[in-house]
Amino acid sequence: MNILITNAHSVRNAGDAVLLEITLRELIDVFPNASITVAINDPNAYVPYGKETAVSSFIDWFKSGTGKQGDWKIGPLLLAPYWLGQAIFAALFFRWTGRPFYLMLRREHRRLLRAYFQADLIVSCPGNFFLSGSGVGVPLFLAIFSLAYGWLAGKPLYMMQQSVGPFRRWIDQVLVSWLLKRLRIVFLRDTRSLETLKSIGFTHPKCFVVPDAALIYRGSGNVYRLLKLLQERQAISRPFVGVTVIDFGAQNRFFHRQPDYEHALTCALSHFIKQHGGTVFLFPQVCGPSQAEDDRIPSRRVAQTLRESGICTIQIDEPWSSDELQAAYGQMDLFIGTRLHSNIFALTAGTPVLAIAYYYKTHGVMQMLGLSDWTIDIAAVDSETLTGLLEKLWSHRQEIHLHLAAKLPEVQQQARSVARLIREDWSQQPSP
Question: Domain 224-395 sits in which CATH superfamily?
Fold first, then answer.
């Protein structure tokens, strides 16, 4: 049998890389003889985890991924009605005749359509791409189209754990609701997403809230790169405070508090280190593909300010694998994360986390873990509040360790149920 995974973004994002790795692993466990194809937005950076193959996604047809915000390809955008029109015709022709027909599409386009037509089922990768961005909505439209195209070709559709929303346009709500109603099962990873869907009138007989797929990720525990880093430095002391920073102002034109957010981070970290000693580690959770997505850019600014204040600071500029990041986060005494999956990596490694939420997906996941008290919204963060929360986290670190040891096995077991439920549902379909 053949499986197509859609809406995979980029392995330069450690969280996305783990979500895809878990998706592949879980599907292979329940479909051991399946041939899997991944439609990914950043195919040039992709290295297969196993025997799966990768093809360019619909988004990659029109967006380079590089540049400040992932530059759109002007020529292909102008051809979008023609290319997508041909793709729609090809899907309808396949659905009516059972035969592929590609017209004049490019070779890489035909490879993608062939993956749809050959698939026995289509699974959307976990994540948070069904939301309104700060632009005109092209990425959301293409994310919707990527899954809706499978429905157009007559394929059974599934969605792994997903955050849905926020929405700021009525048309976005309508399109996402229309799409999700055509899925055989809808898996959400937080109750906030469920509340959003209910608020726009969405109902589905098989809509479930299941913990984030990354919660079941366990790397090898390889701390070699961290140990090498420590050996190269002098006068490094504990406690170790791990940090991930996001350039949310570059990603969202409605967010104007980037300097305030970075200032709050530097103040809280400076106060903590001056009170308790120790070292700050700034980690590269996401290294692209666009400059706006690259966490190293704001991390350099924060690191410079901390060093100017006399704070022992290590800013890691080279890309690290998900395995290396999770292992390093597990060696931290505390963690302040803005990237959702950096927080999940740290929590699953047993490290207490103070989460800064740039979308409500972070609130939802932390709530599911019983850690809402350790979450602050990026729009409300300030120096005094963040400093106080970090001190409070330090004083409660032992009870958080105990809470994680008790809570994580429960949510991990729930997260592992998704692929099995997909398998059971797909097996109940009538034979074609």
Answer: Glycogen Phosphorylase B; (3.40.50.2000)
